[in-house]
Amino acid sequence: MQETKSNNQNETNLIDILVKEYKDETWEKIANSIKKTKLKIEGIPQDIIDVLVFTLDSEIEASEWLKRNLTAFDGKTAKDLLSTEKGTKALKQFILRIPM
């Protein structure tokens, strides 16, 4: 039980850190400056797909990443995070931190 509580606390801290770092204008500037992809995934906003495809340089890798359980977020998927505004901001900032 202690480990679960600790994991949830780490996830909350990470989300809070990412939300604090997140800037709408930075995301919009990047999302609007990159090539749009043909990849579509139900339930995932197109701007997130486009930025992730650009970052990972692969539609296949981006598609797989968006569907996988994300260890940094206690096993939640991108869709799980997108269910709240805070989670959406954290996901976008997390994507911006991925090295290209």
Compile the SSE list and pairings.
Layout lengths: L1 H20 L2 H10 L12 H11 L2 H9 L10 H4 L3 H13 L3
Structural overview:
By secondary structure, the protein is mainly α. The chain has one domain (2-97). Helices cover 67% and strands 0% of the residues. It contains six helices and no strands. The chain has helices spanning 2-21, 24-33, 46-56, 59-67, 78-81, 85-97.
Low-confidence stretches: none
Give the class from helix and strand content and strand pairing.
mainly alpha
The share of residues in extended strands comes to under 5%
Mean pLDDT: 91
Q: Calculate the terminal CA-CA distance, rounded to whole Å.
A: 37 Å
The tally of strands reads 0
H/E element string?
HHHHHH
Shape: globular
Share in helix: 55-70%
Name some characteristics of this structure:
100 residues; 6 helices
Care to give the gist of this entry?
The protein has 100 residues and is mainly α.
